[in-house]
């Protein structure tokens, strides 16, 4: 258990030692490449060494390498950093002196904006830059500037920076992007509803007609019954309850016929009325077109007639 804990404790130290060893190998490689005049390779080796394990001595070597390549602004930035962070006072003073020596030689760029949008962003050689009115150090050579913002057209330019000079980058007002509004097609109107079926209406009208016929027939049979009773009374001398003996049989036939006609009249009137009412209901609930129809049913009663009256507006 103790051995395991000791091994776990040594892992960070081993990793640290491996990184430092790799950085030292890269540093030695860079020094040899620089001695051979291979400055591009030497600077790359020093950069990789610092990325693996940062060391002020390697940064100083990289600063000298940059100067050999003509990247004076990059060299100046490293000397300025070492002037603040070098481990000893002598190293800090030497770094500050070297930075001061390079400062008059380095190039700078200055960005000028024309009505910039609030979210404007600018990159210099692919790296974001702060929008400041102070000249910023830059290595001599080609400079690719790009400016962009939401809802605006990108702007870019290829310029050239020189040592000891100030490159003014004038960024114009970015043109607005034309917003193309694509209007959605008008939705197709729903298909017209199928024409209403008139079956119920026709059945209702048929029932009304049949019912009306039955009521009329009932009225006729009612009239026949009334006439039959009148004929019987005439045969009996005005009183069927005290009929003449020789007229009783004939009067009875008239009374029986009158009663049958009366019963049939009642059945026809009631059945006809029901048929009329049912027909009216069917007609009312039948599917309608756009026009409105109104129907009204009211009872009719007179001294000589009983039944229903159908009225309406179409």
Throw out a few tags for this protein:
alpha+beta; Serine Threonine Protein Phosphatase 5, Tetratricopeptide repeat; Immunoglobulin-like; four-stranded antiparallel β-sheet; three-stranded mixed β-sheet; 7 helices; 9 strands; 53% helix; rod-shaped; disordered N terminus
Secondary structure elements and their pairing?
Elements: H1 2-35, H2 39-52, H3 56-69, H4 72-85, H5 89-102, E1 107-113, E2 121-124, E3 127-128, E4 136-138, E5 141-148, E6 155-161, E7 166-171, H6 199-235, H7 248-285, E8 294-301, E9 306-313
Parallel strand pairs: 1-7
Antiparallel strand pairs: 1-4, 2-3, 2-5, 5-6, 8-9
User: What proportion of the residues form beta strands (DSSP E)?
Assistant: 15-25%
Report the radius of gyration as a whole number of Å.
58 Å
Secondary-structure element string? HHHHHEEEEEEEHHEE
Note poorly predicted spans.
2-11, 291-297, 300-306
Number of strands: 9
Helix content: 40-55%
Largest sheet: 4 strands, antiparallel
Q: Provide a count of the helices.
A: 7
Give the overall pLDDT as a whole number. 81
Which strands sit side by side, in order, in the main sheet? Answer: 3-2-5-6
What is the oligomer described by this structure?
A: single chain
Shape: rod-shaped
Q: What distance separates the N and C termini?
A: 105 Å
Number of domains: 3
- Structural class, from helix and strand content? alpha+beta
Task: Give an account of the 3D structure.
- By secondary structure, the protein is an alpha+beta fold.
- It has seven helices and nine strands.
- The strands form three sheets. A four-stranded antiparallel sheet has the order 3-2-5-6, with no helix packed on it.
- A hairpin with a 6-residue loop joins strand 5 and strand 6.
- Helix 3 runs antiparallel to helix 4 (72-85) and helix 4 packs antiparallel against helix 5 (89-102).
- It is rod-shaped, with a radius of gyration of 58 Å.
- The chain starts with a helix and ends with a strand.
- Mean pLDDT is 81; it is low at 2-11, 291-297 and 300-306.
């Amino acid at each position: 258990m103790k051995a395991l804990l000791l091994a776990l404790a040594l892992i960070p130290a081993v990793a640290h030692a491996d990184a430092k060893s790799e950085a030292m190998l890269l540093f030695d490689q860079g020094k040899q490449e620089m001695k051979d005049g291979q400055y591009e390779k030497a600077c790359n080796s020093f950069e990789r060494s610092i990325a693996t394990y940062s060391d002020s001595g390697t940064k100083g070597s990289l600063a000298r390498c940059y100067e050999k390549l003509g990247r004076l602004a990059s060299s100046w930035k490293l000397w300025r950093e070492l002037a603040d962070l070098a481990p000893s006072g002598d190293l800090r003073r030497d770094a500050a002196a070297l930075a001061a020596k390079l400062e008059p030689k380095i190039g700078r760029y200055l960005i000028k904006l024309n009505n910039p949008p609030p979210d404007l962003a600018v990159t210099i050689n692919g790296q974001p830059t702060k929008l400041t009115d102070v000249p910023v150090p830059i290595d001599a050579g080609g400079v690719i500037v790009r400016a962009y913002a939401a809802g605006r057209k990108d702007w870019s330019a290829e310029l050239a920076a020189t040592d000891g000079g100030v490159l003014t980058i004038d960024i114009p007002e970015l043109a607005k992007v034309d917003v193309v509004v694509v209007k959605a097609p008008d939705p197709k109107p729903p298909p017209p509803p199928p024409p209403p079926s008139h079956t119920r209406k026709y059945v209702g009208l048929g029932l009304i007609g049949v019912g009306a016929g039955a009521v009329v027939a009932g009225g006729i049979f009612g009239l026949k019954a009334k006439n039959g009773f009148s004929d019987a009374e005439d045969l009996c001398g005005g009183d069927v309850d005290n009929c003449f003996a020789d007229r009783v049989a004939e009067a009875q036939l008239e009374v029986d016929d009158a009663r049958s006609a009366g019963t049939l009249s009642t059945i026809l009137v009631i059945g006809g009325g029901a048929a009329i009412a049912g027909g009216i209901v069917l007609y009312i609930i039948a599917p309608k077109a756009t026009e409105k129809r109104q129907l009204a049913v009211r009872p009719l009663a007179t001294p000589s007639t009983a039944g229903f009256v159908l009225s309406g507006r179409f």
